[in-house]
Description:
Elements: H1 13-22, E1 26-30, H2 34-42, E2 47-50, H3 54-57, H4 69-82, E3 87-91, H5 101-114, E4 119-123, H6 129-137, E5 142-147, H7 153-156, H8 165-178, E6 182-186, H9 190-199, E7 204-207, E8 215-218, H10 220-223, H11 241-258
Amino acid sequence: MATETNPPKRVTTRTLQKMxxxxxxxxxxxxxxxxxxxxxxxxxxDMLLVGDSLAMVVQGHDTTLPxxxxxxxxxxxxxxxAAQRAMVVVDLPFPEGQIEIxxxxxxxxxxxxxxxxxxxxxxxxxxxxxxxxxxxxxGVPVMAxxxxxxxxxHVDGGYRLQRDTExxxxxxxxxxxxxxxxxxxxxxxxxxxxxxxxxxxxxTIGIGAGRDVSGQVLVxxxxxxxxxxxxxxxxxxxxxxxxxLKDAADGYxxxxxxxxxxxxxxxx
Length: 268
């Protein structure tokens, strides 16, 4: 067991590649704050994603587009400080991954300089190969993101299953050739994810992409019942913290109103 003098061994890009080569499943969950990241890290989750999904699940927006780079850095710093073992990946928010490449490099560098996180995630495949290569050349590990791309929602006309096997395989291969250490695959048929995984040598992390990938990622709020709206088909609720939080608030309200809290033992 890890102690203060014997800290847990950090998960790195090399760790993930070895896990993929051994056929050992990789686990990844989102985190946006210190206490959540600390608990997930202690639970042995391999990778934490400071996702631009925080725009929806934390800030209450309808899409991921409103979140800013400064806000991503703010949340990433907390997560990076909490994680002792997990590798922490930070999304490049819109439009940091779409405009001039030098700005993408600067944004990626901020992640490493201003937080304790270890890599960035960039939406796109073949058309982003030059950007991926430039960021990696600058010294920042990059996870590519193919399939459904939430930052592209207005171009795609909504959140839709992506079925073009040839395009998606080419996207993943181009990202790998450009230096991406892993490829996230979102919302594709399982057969497509299998084809992508067989076409590349780097780890593939699926979300709504079936079982035949190197690992899985989900939004933590979804798996613990802290959602306030639509829950995707591909997620599973493993606990109901939402109900627990409501019950605790109900109990607190009633005890305060009835005079039961605070008691003599809870007073000075």
